UniProtKB/TrEMBL annotation:
Positions of the Heme haloperoxidase family profile domain: 52-294
Domain of life: Eukaryota
Listed name of the protein: Cloroperoxidase
Annotated PROSITE patterns: HEME_HALOPEROXIDASE (PS51405)
Family affiliation: Belongs to the chloroperoxidase family.
GO molecular function, one term: metal ion binding
PANTHER family from the UniProt entry: HEME HALOPEROXIDASE FAMILY PROFILE DOMAIN-CONTAINING PROTEIN, STERIGMATOCYSTIN BIOSYNTHESIS PEROXIDASE STCC-RELATED
Signal sequence coordinates: 1-21
SUPFAM superfamilies: Cloroperoxidase
Lineage of producing organism: Eukaryota, Fungi, Dikarya, Basidiomycota, Agaricomycotina
Amino acid sequence: MFSPVRTALVCLIASASLSSAFPTERSNPPGGVVITIPPRSTDVGLKLVPDADHPFVAPGPGDMRGPCPALNTLANHGYLPRNGVASYEQIINATREGFNMDHDLAAFDAAFAMLARGNAFVNRLSIGGETPLVPPLPGQIDGPGSPGGIAKHGRFEGDVSMTREDAALGDSVNFQDALYDELLLYTGKFGDDSPITGNRSIVTKKVMAEFKYARFVEDQARNNQLSFHAGRIATSYNEAAFILNLFANGTDGVLSIQMLGNIIRNQTFGANWFRRSSPGTFDLITTQAAEILAVHPVSPGANDENGNYIVDPPSTACNAAYYDLAVLSIPASYSKATGLFRKNVDTLLGAIAKPFGCPVIQPQGPVGV
């Protein structure tokens, strides 16, 4: 059985032609920005969110929003740039300020997103789709176009989301009411009773365990292109644990349907919502993700062309999810980076490996996908 404990929150393709096309240190274009990992903050206690300096403003034309309700909410309140294009440091600081996300967990998530779908040379990532504010990588080492943003299918965004369709089935970027209604049905069946309403309106681990498994069964039956390898299982179940622990009101740790709907559907912080009283750590999220998955175990794998789910062979890596995410998903062409670009890549690779306790392994993933 696969377990996402100590996992997150796909080969070597670099060729001689890539090597010759990649810029040398002297030919790196101007405009690079040094990426630094912000220091660990001491402001990590219970706090009312949002404050007066961060009112909700709906996104305007051209503002980037994507499949992550937490990042969308932070942008809607100005904790992230409201245009939805952010630096690595801004993401770490915003997730700590808004959700009390622990430093190492935030550093990992932001680093993986930046290398998977951002531009680590200019230190810019779109939390939605493609934008001219995030140019192609130096030398177009990951293809001629924009990195795509986290809304682009694959690498960061993947199958069996709680509120988005698989890309092969429909809209993988925007909130889907039908899926959310399904989550509400599972809350009514498996949730805890609210002390206020008396109804089953409290979202729990049991709700997440049953709903997540149902989502897998649904998509495995419908999507012949389903991809659910170790890294995606980890991020999918970590999503459930993240919601339970960081969307709940910090005053009591309870996740009501109202609190859930504010962030996941309306993408705003509701009235009288407090972030959690202690940082949400990597271990907290991955341990609870493992508990949710253990109710209905699912092994890493993918569908073949006939819709049969083929389980992956056992992994011998330091950590199966780390290897799938950091090695098999991030483009192998990063190995050709030089100068400031190389320094930034190394900083981000180190941030990805740190919470897993694994040595840094250079990326070996496909280019231009």
